[in-house]
Design goal:
The complex is a heterodimer of chains A (313) and B (114).
Chain A lengths: L8 H10 L12 H20 L1 H5 L8 H26 L5 H9 L16 H22 L5 H29 L3 H20 L11 H6 L7 H19 L9 E3 L4 E3 L5 H11 L3 H14 L1 H17 L1
Antiparallel strand pairs in A: 1-2
Chain B lengths: L27 E7 L7 E7 L3 H12 L7 E6 L8 H10 L20
Antiparallel strand pairs in B: 1-2, 1-3
The chains are: A mainly alpha (313), B alpha+beta (114).
């Protein structure tokens, strides 16, 4: 596309976005576009990294060696996804270590879903099925994001995410075809994870600070409430198959709309967790910080080793 | 996983200035993967590592967990030199010569495929 010669930098940016072409790192972009992307990609990366903790909690307690190997592979994927995303953020001129530092200082957030505890093995199933399921709903949209490096990272992530959701659902299939106690465990996990999973799509679009501008810039392609509806419609039949009941008395098929109606999210809980008062907020950051500080000597030793080898060469 | 991470009412959504909060970081490397024999290496992303050996190991773990790579290159990011999009555009404009393209020439149908 030959916008360069005829247009001002700003008009060219608008034209590229309008034409569904991609903005690449060296292109001129509005400061607000750059800052929105940095904030969103960094928060997304932080979420992947913090997201290793609730599942990591069950690696040493997985019921079989096979399930343990699967869970380790999944947690390793989350680390990988975090790294793809930090890499995408760095194309915008920030440093990964600086972004991490902002996370450690509580200046950057991550998804609130990871501020809930994993109390039983069934939670590992519920996370794969619901949390990764909600994530995929959102991610498929982001593969069409206007910023090239972010969209490409999302394509890689989406390819791997399908394994995450399927292994989770399979855990629940096994539990639901097991003893009454196992089925009750699956139901309990669904009861606790359903509403936080719906909260993952964020506030109603009418209350969302970013939606409108992000849609204009094609960073975001589908509104929060539409994504949430998609997720509900997709998930209900899957719960039926398991023989589990959704913890929402208002949930029912609406023939007229062609969608499921569902109850209102507890927004007080939502904002409380966003502001830091969820069950696990403090633990998650403390753990992250501890790992970072205890690893400092390794990072320094690797640099010292590299310098020594270079001097000897 | 992906999420809309909202900003609580009254909180600022501003991005903090990146001001070298951390001094001693591992340098950045660009990673190129050859997905299979017969095709070129393609840039796939970047990572941080103290030296080339560990950059290669990290690249293997981060970018080829499912056998996506038949070969890997890592290059220090500071060693990549680029044309800015504007420079390329000026060059293309100045060299717009349709006669460089095969389609600029009329060959009669009777001649057949050429």
């Amino acid at each position: 596309m030959r916008f360069q010669a005829i247009l001002s930098a700003e008009d060219r940016f608008e034209a590229i976005v309008a034409a569904e072409d991609k903005i690449e790192p060296a292109d001129w972009m509005p400061d607000a576009y750059r800052n929105t992307l940095i904030r969103q990609i960094a928060q997304h990366a932080h979420s992947e990294i913090i997201g290793m903790q609730p599942e990591g909690n069950w690696i040493s307690r997985a019921p079989t060696l096979y399930r343990k190997a699967i869970l380790m592979a999944k947690v390793q994927d989350e680390a990988g996804h975090g790294l793809y995303l930090y890499s995408a953020a760095e194309t915008l001129g920030v440093k990964r270590d600086d972004l991490q530092e902002l996370l450690h200082r509580g200046k950057h957030k991550y998804s609130s879903i990871f501020n809930y505890p994993t109390l039983s093995w069934a939670d590992i199933g519920a996370i794969g099925w619901l949390v990764d399921g909600a994530a995929i709903t959102n991610q498929v949209m982001l593969t069409r994001c206007s910023y090239g490096p972010y969209a490409r990272a999302m394509v890689r992530i989406c390819k791997e995410e399908s394994f995450h959701q399927r292994q989770g659902y399979e855990i629940l299939i096994r539990l639901c075809s097991g003893s009454d106690e196992q089925k009750a465990m699956a139901q309990d996990a669904l009861d606790r994870w359903w509403w936080p999973s719906l909260m993952m799509f964020g506030p109603h679009d009418t209350d969302s600070t970013h939606t409108e501008q992000s849609m204009e810039w094609k960073i975001k392609r589908v509104a929060n409430d539409d994504l949430r509806q998609q997720f509900v419609d997709m998930t209900l039949p899957q719960a039926d198959y398991l023989g589990l009941r959704m913890p929402d008395p208002e949930l029912r098929w609406n023939e007229e709309r062609g969608h499921y109606d569902f109850g209102e999210i507890d927004w007080d809980e939502f904002w409380a967790v966003v502001k830091g008062d969820g069950p696990m907020n403090r633990d998650r950051i403390e753990h992250k910080l501890r790992a970072w500080e205890e690893g400092a000597w390794v990072r320094q030793a690797a640099l010292a080793h590299a310098a020594k080898r270079e001097a000897a060469a | 996983m992906t999420y809309e991470v909202p900003v609580a009412p009254g909180e600022s959504a501003e991005v903090e200035e990146s001001a070298d909060l951390v001094n001693e970081s591992w340098p950045m490397w660009e990673v190129f993967v050859r997905a299979r024999r017969g095709i070129s290496h393609v840039h796939i992303g970047s990572l941080h590592a103290a030296d080339a050996d560990s950059a290669l190991q990290n690249a293997r773990d981060v970018y080829t967990r499912r056998g996506e790579g038949a070969s890997l290159w890592v290059v220090p990011s500071t060693e990549i030199h680029t044309f800015e999009p504007d420079d390329i555009a000026d060059f293309v404009e100045a060299n717009e010569k349709p006669f460089r393209l095969a389609t600029a020439y009329d060959i009669p149908d009777e001649v057949g495929h050429m």
